[in-house]
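Onboarding guide, step 5: your first structure request.
Type a short instruction followed by the sequence, for example:

Predict the 3D structure of this protein.
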Amino acid sequence: MDPLTHGLAGTAIFNLGFRRKAAFWVLLLSSLAPDFDYITRFWGVDVFLRYHRGITHSIFASIIISMIIGFIFGRKKDFIYYSFIAFLAYTAHLFMDLTNQYGIRILAPLDWHPYSLDLMFIIDPYITAALLLSVILSNVIKKRTALIALITVFVVITYAGVRYYLHGITRDFLRDRLDANTYKVCPLPNDFLRWWFIAKSGNEIKVGFADLFTQRICIQETYWTNNNDPLIERSKDTRVVHNFLYFAKYPYAEVLREKEKTIVIWRELAYSFRAGEHFVAKVIYDKEGRVLDSYCKL
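The system replies with structure tokens like these:
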């Protein structure tokens, strides 16, 4: 989720009734703290892809950083109280990020595998709107602040539950209509009944849309993973591709040969429904096979 949504979530938790002196600032800071790894963007998009939603998005970090925040704001007197509410806001952030297909390394440093529920897109305007409405109503109807916040929490959890149900139905629908060994169902922006899918069987990968409303499957593209071009393997030695592959769950590489250069393009198929170049890594070689340029795009 985006920082605005996380900040609103911290405010909604505050409105549940945590009213001690520094509670608001503790909750706001804790709800945003996991995304402090945005600083890695200064070192390049590929570095950002590798380290964003890494150790700062783990249960381990939520405990340690919550205790640090609790100590800063509470010292000895209110340390447990502020550590507890910091942990609430921090883990709320982790749960919200866990719902989308980007994934978080929630068990780091014991397990660096990215986990995701694939329920919502990275930015979900419905959750943002619900949280914003909650904050506004809480300031207008101050006698019902806790009740409004509690209803908001229930609405957000119910919304996630409905999407979980639709996600499961979509997987079953794909299994019935499409023969494959593995299936991945990903959310689309602002859509409930249409989902993006990746279906793999042997060397064949199919990507497209599964529409629950029309009961149709639209295969957008078919890829083959038996491309043994040596430049694909060589590209893995570049920093850009190395970091990209650490991030990507469903990477696919292709080679584009032009007159004066050759381009190796890596794509993350979980986002290939987006028009243009998004979540791709490129390595450009000259005619002698020397690297001219390499970069990532989000």
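Each response can be followed by summary notes, for example: The first helix runs from residue 3 to 14.
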